[in-house]
Each structure stands twice: as C-alpha cells, then as structure tokens.
C-alpha cells in the first residue's frame, strides 16, 4: 500500500527518470503543498518534520530515499536544523575514507575529491563494522554542469548479481571481503580516498589511533609517513531486518575501480576474505548493473536528500564548479 502524503507534504514526480515500483517511487520526492499555502519559514518546515516523523519514517522505509525539494533551506545552519529536527543520533565519521571538513554542528562537506573525479557506488562506510544508518545531503550551491548523485536500491543489485553470478555471490557470502588502504599522515584533497590517518581516527597520537582502529576490527601497519589499514574479513552481503531482504552491502566496486592514488592500487584494495583476488570481469559487470539500475539526482539549490544507508548505494558524477553539497551522518 502506498504511503499517503499529508496536508504539508505532497509527493511529486519531478524527475523524468524516477523509477516506479509496484508500491513506491524511487526516490520519493516531497515538495510543499501549495493548498493551503505552507509557511515559507524554516521553523515551520522543521516543526512539520518533527510532527510528521511517523509519515516520513514510513516513506523512507518504503522507498529507501526521500528528496525534499522546494523547502526554505538556504544555509549550512539551516541544514543542520533540518537534520536535528529528525531526531536521529549523530554518527562520528571515524574510519571513513573521504576527506571532509566540519562546517557547522553535525554538518560536514561531502567528499572533497577533485570535481573531475567520479566517486563510485558505495554504501557509506561499508568497509567498517560501525556505519551510519541514515545519510543526509544538502545542495548549498547548485552545480555548474554535472555533479549528480546517482542512487540505487541495494537489494535489486543483490538479486541481479545472484541471478547472473550465483557462484561468485555464494563465495562472497561465505568469505566476505578484505579491504586494504594506505593512509598518509595528513589529508590529500587530490584523492577521493585521501583522508589521512590523523583525521580518520580523530587523533595525532599513534597509540590512540591503534586503539580506535582495534575497536573497528582494523589492523594497522605503520610504514614511514603513513599506515596500511587492513579491514576484514567483513561481510559483503547483509540482511536488512527492517525490510526482510538481503542487500549488496559492500564497497567492492568502489574499492576495485576507484581507490586509486599515489599510495593505493585499486586492484589490491579489496580481495575475497580468504585473500584470493576478485575477478575483474564480474566487478565491471556489477558496475554496469549499478549504472543501469540507478537514478541520478540532479541537484537544485536547497535540495535535501535523505538516504537509508541500509537500502541504498550512492555515488557522485564529475562536475564543473561551482558545486557545494554538504552531508550529515546518523546512527
């Protein structure tokens, strides 16, 4: 049964390539209801979020992603207020690969890698045991050209991969994956995985970094001015209990096709959990499935995109500046 809109929110179809499934649209798109004309104030928007949280939770559970378009969200502080209104617990960004900068409150820049680089599909922080369940993105500055955020439903990817490569998927389910990444001391903004070990572990003390890595189940091997991080074996397929289905919860394609910089060879960045190499042809076919099944969100200034990290993988297309998209992670 479809989730019903409310007096304040209306569900719209503003994307030509939005996907339409039996009981929901992907993504769901909410805009202000013009009848009666809603208040243009941010405070009214945040009040409606809080008061209509059951409706919004139900919509997110059904669709996996909700795009709020046309609401009065103009600044990073406004965005922070919107995130706070949902009441989700904040998730510290410990163990993630992307270079990010704190802007205000719970708000960070999204991945700061150069605009000509594509960020491959991934579940946020799928390479570590503790990952966010919800992600918020906010468009503060609309892209000049490009810069879309493609999103794809994870269970669809799992089903298509299992149908096409049953033995490969069975091996993934049995062995999981090992992720290996070399970190410098400081952030490298020229790399999509350029977060240094100091900001990765939020410390400049190697002993504290080792403690925090150990809590994540991560091994560290210090090497000159950097450190090799080894995570795994870690599951590549998870079970989404809230929706009762298996999901393609990994960073396999992202690591194999995108974890490349002066310190890292992407082919060595991810292996089966028993240490055996992954088959390149299957990885690249998985990438094709991700591209075929995705919906690319073209950003408009003021957009807020809420993603259930259990249900949806996301990526970023290259762009011509300007573009400023901010993010917030929630437990």
Automatic annotation (TrEMBL):
InterPro entries: AlphaKG_dependent_hydroxylases (IPR050411), TauD-like_sf (IPR042098), TauD/TfdA-like (IPR003819). GO terms for molecular function: oxidoreductase activity. It holds the Pfam family TauD. Residues 41-326 form the TauD/TfdA-like domain. Coiled coil: none annotated. Keywords: Oxidoreductase. This is Clavaminate synthase-like protein.
